[in-house]
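Sequence in, structure out. Go.
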Amino acid sequence: MQPMKLKTIHTRLFEEGENIERFILEHIPKLGDGSILVVTSKIVALAERRTATPEEKEKIILRESEWAVPTKYVWLTIKDGMFMAAAGIDESNAQGKIILLPKDSFKAAARLHQALLKRYKIKKLGVLITDSRVLPLRAGVVGVALGYAGFAGIKDYRGSADLFGRTLKMTRVDIADSLATAAVLLMGEGKERKPLAIIEGAPIEFRGRVNRQELVIPVADDLYVPLFGKLNLKKPEKKRRD
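Output:
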């Protein structure tokens, strides 16, 4: 098996409302068969004009979240089946605005996947849309997959044997988030201006259809639920300010 290679792409600034497909082709005119194209969620959101003013932030956080609770630093929210800060809304590299997450990252990845397969004239292509997250009790951010297309996002070891013949009962590998973390590490979080990356030689299974629920665990079954107490998963309401 060939070693996995990851290359980031330095680009010009992406403008709000710009065509993301043309932007990608401008900076990556050719792509090898079996590659994974990594795209930061920020430029996907900018292409969709998913921006607002900072004054609207709290209202939008509550609107975008399935569950929300204020913490010492930010709102802790659940959105699209994931715990995240402030419904993923970001003020960094936003030119005075706030940038929301893409409307539907899986649909955005699927659209790019279909369009770029034809443009690059290749048979196998993965598209991965990334963001950053913090982990419980860990400092710093890591990459996370918001949406992907063209490959399986999880590898299931359940029912197979370990080195000593013991049957694995729980083990699954989160392929999509692992690739996202590797890519985000090199793409950066500051002024690197590397919103695109190419991964080659990744140990993945290419497929035409993606199960967007394959990485999602029901809240009641999640390992960290005891840390949060009994969750009330009703849509959050904005507090009145008298």
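Check: Residues 77 and 83 are 6 Å apart (CA to CA). The radius of gyration is 19 Å.
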